[in-house]
């Protein structure tokens, strides 16, 4: 069996999303500023322990719950920011800063979704010798066997950084670049991610620049 992918990468992404969220103005937060960090601590703290002790079902439940909460918090913040535009209550620089934070949050949140869902999730991928199927067609999956062996990719499987790269490209190019999408659920998620990114970049950031 191949080496398990490092879970700390996803945990760092969860912490980063939380830090980005609490860096937003209070007008963009749902509830008090301490609420989301408290929820993240309660749900994220047991994740590594559950994985190491083999309680993968509970690990998945907590992981999906936490990612859903982060997603809802981000979407609510985007909606609040759109609602503030007509009132002109936020300074242009504050709008730009908030838009940038939400754009980064969008990348990280959807990277977590792709990492959690692709090919049965991280545990299911750990159980396989190679990554031969999934929602995304990574370049390593198209290599000939001799090329895999020559490049040291024979036992390759995607890690969180690979999904982060897919999410980053989706938010910048509004489409996959080197990694085609194969399943319908992944296409729906990528459309949603692109829509949020387009809203933040084309509407919020552009509006902030116009009123500078």
Short description:
The protein has helices at residues 8-22, 35-44, 47-52, 56-84, 92-117, 122-126, 145-151, 160-173, 184-210. The protein is mostly helical and 212 residues long.
Helix and strand arrangement:
Blueprint: H1 8-22, H2 35-44, H3 47-52, H4 56-84, H5 92-117, H6 122-126, H7 145-151, H8 160-173, H9 184-210
Structural account:
By secondary structure, the protein is mainly α. The chain has one domain. It is built from 9 helices and no strands. The chain has helices spanning 8-22, 35-44, 47-52, 56-84, 92-117, 122-126, 145-151, 160-173, 184-210. Helix 1 runs parallel beside helix 4, helix 4 packs antiparallel against helix 5 and helix 8 (160-173) crosses helix 9 (184-210). The model has no long low-confidence stretch (mean pLDDT 85).
Along the chain, the helix and strand elements come as HHHHHHHHH
What integer is the average pLDDT?
A: 85
Low-confidence stretches: none
How does the helix and strand content classify structurally?
Answer: mainly alpha
How many helices? The count is: 9
Strand composition percent: under 5%
Domains, number: 1
Total E-strand runs: 0
N- to C-terminal distance: 56 Å
Helix share bin: 55-70%
Can you tell me the overall shape?
Answer: globular
- Rg, nearest Å: 19 Å
Q: What's the story with the biggest beta sheet?
A: none
């Amino acid at each position: 069996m191949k080496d398990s992918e490092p879970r700390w990468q996803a945990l760092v992404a969860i912490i980063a999303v939380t830090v980005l969220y609490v860096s937003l103005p209070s007008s963009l937060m749902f509830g008090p500023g301490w609420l989301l960090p408290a929820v993240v601590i309660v749900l994220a703290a047991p994740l590594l322990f559950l994985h190491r002790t083999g309680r993968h079902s509970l690990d998945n439940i907590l992981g999906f719950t936490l990612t859903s909460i982060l997603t809802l918090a981000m979407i609510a913040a985007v909606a609040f920011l759109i609602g503030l535009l007509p009132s002109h209550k936020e300074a242009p620089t504050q709008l730009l800063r908030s838009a940038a934070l939400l754009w980064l949050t969008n990348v990280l949140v959807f990277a977590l979704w792709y990492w959690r869902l692709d090919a049965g999730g991280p545990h299911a991928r750990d159980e396989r010798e190679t990554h031969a199927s999934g929602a995304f067609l990574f370049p390593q999956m198209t290599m000939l066997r001799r090329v895999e062996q020559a490049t040291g990719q024979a036992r390759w499987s995607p890690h969180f950084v690979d999904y982060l790269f897919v999410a980053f490209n989706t938010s910048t190019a509004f489409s996959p670049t080197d990694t085609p999408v194969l399943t319908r659920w992944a296409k729906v998620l990528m459309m949603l991610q692109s829509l949020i990114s387009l809203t933040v970049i084309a509407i919020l950031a552009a509006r902030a620049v116009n009123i500078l």
